[in-house]
Amino acid sequence: MGEGRMRGLKLGKFAFLNVWPIYYALETGRVDHDFEIVAGSPAQLNEKMRRGELDLSPVSSVAYARHPDRMQLLPGIAIACDGPVQSVLLLSRRPVEDLDGQEILLTRQSDTSVVLLKVLMQELLGFRRVRYRRGGLREGLENGAPPTAFLAIGDEALVYRNHPDYPYVWDLAEVWKRWTGLPFVFALWVVRRGRRPVHTQAVGRAVEALWAAKRWGLEHLDVICAQAARTGILDHAGLERYYRTFSFGLNGQTLAGLELFFRHMVRIGDIGQLPPLDFVQAGPGTEESRVEIAREGGREWVGNA
Fold first, then answer.
1. Is 240 contained in some domain?
2. Where is the signal peptide (predicted)?
3. Gap between the Cα atoms of 187 and 180, Å rounded
4. pLDDT at 5
5. Domain final residue, candidates 180, 208, 226
6. Whether pLDDT at 292 is above 60
7. Which of 58, 22, 28 minimizes the C-alpha distance to 43?
8. Which of 2, 5, 6, 225 could join 239 via S-S bond, C-beta 3.0 to 4.6 A?
9. For residues 280 and 288, what is the distance between their CA atoms, to the nearest angstrom?
10. 2 domain-assigned
11. Given pLDDT bands bounded at 50, 70 and 90, which one contains residue 69?
12. How far apart are CA 124 and CA 127, in angstroms?
């Protein structure tokens, strides 16, 4: 790859509806790019980034917290929610307050949601006897011995959220917001670092493309909802409500929520110390776009420029 060129960069993509406002413009040619887009679940992309198999990708917030030595943050782009998220749900046969000592089936697709659930169980409710088991949700619900409660994320949560056998529903982002008063950051976009770092000019142009795609998506949600409705998971109106629950950027409030979550990860023993919020020191291709991304990315981009 020539110096400063974006051609050939492998960009991860969550295989969920929640990233359509960013990736639709890339995948339909509304925004010019040379990415090779690789789709997968958050857990799969976390592992690919950890192994250095992707150049840039969204990853679960906990993946960055656990491996800050292997990735750096991109400015001004995230998946955050300042209240109910609809697609990160604990569904239970009994009231959540009665789950201490019970087993909860956990989705294999996510890491951040699993840790958030453990934080809420231990730090908010004081539960120490909950048992957790990873497994496929469909198999777990259809094997003749369904769990007392299960955690579902993404499209599975949208499908299972009205399950008649599980009337007690915890929207984890809503519970976090009521508890802390802060937004919750589920995912961050990162760039690989290490022995094969991505060239800084290529990173800057990649950020520029992602920002352009995000702007297009948020300005054309009606188009995206019309296309996403074809999946049959939600109708057009439901998708509009769903997408408007998200913030796809990083600001002071979302960063405060992220840092607080990392502190709770330390408290429950998931990580040994707080990770630095280490943003890339790359500028995009033009001064005009650099100013735009600095504005959108906030103090982190400016501070690391």
1. yes
2. none
3. 18
4. 41
5. 180
6. no
7. 58
8. 225
9. 18
10. no
11. very high
12. 8
Contact 79, 23 (CB under 8 A): no
pLDDT tens column, 236-283: 999 999 999 999 999 999 999 999 999 999 999 999 999 999 998 755
Does 300 lie in the same domain as 204?
Answer: yes
What CATH number did the domain enclosing 215 receive? 3.40.190.10
Q: Does one domain contain both 64 and 195?
A: yes
Cβ burial 220-249 (10 Å sphere, 16+ → b, else e):
ebeebbeebbeeebbeeeebeebbebbbbb
d(CA 171, CA 83): 9
Do 109 and 40 belong to one domain?
Answer: no
Residue 3 lies in a domain: no
Question: Distance between CA atoms of 119 and 111, rounded to whole angstroms?
Answer: 12
Question: 165: helix, coil or strand?
Answer: coil
Task: Give the residue, 287 or 119, on which the prediction is more confident.
Answer: 119
Asked if 219 and 289 sit in the same domain, the reply is yes
Q: What is the mean pLDDT of residues 193-222?
A: 89
- Give the span between the Cα atoms of 4 and 112, in whole angstroms: 33
Collapsed DSSP state (helix, strand, coil) of residue 178: helix
Q: Would you place residue 159 in the very low, low, confident or very high pLDDT band (cuts 50, 70, 90)? A: confident
Name the domain boundary from 131, 154, 180: 180
Domain that holds residue 149: 88-180
Name the token pair of 273: 């110390």
Q: Rounded to a whole number, what is the largest CA-CA distance in the chain?
A: 61
Helix (H, G, I), strand (E, B) or coil at 213: helix
Residue 214 has pLDDT above 50, yes or no: yes
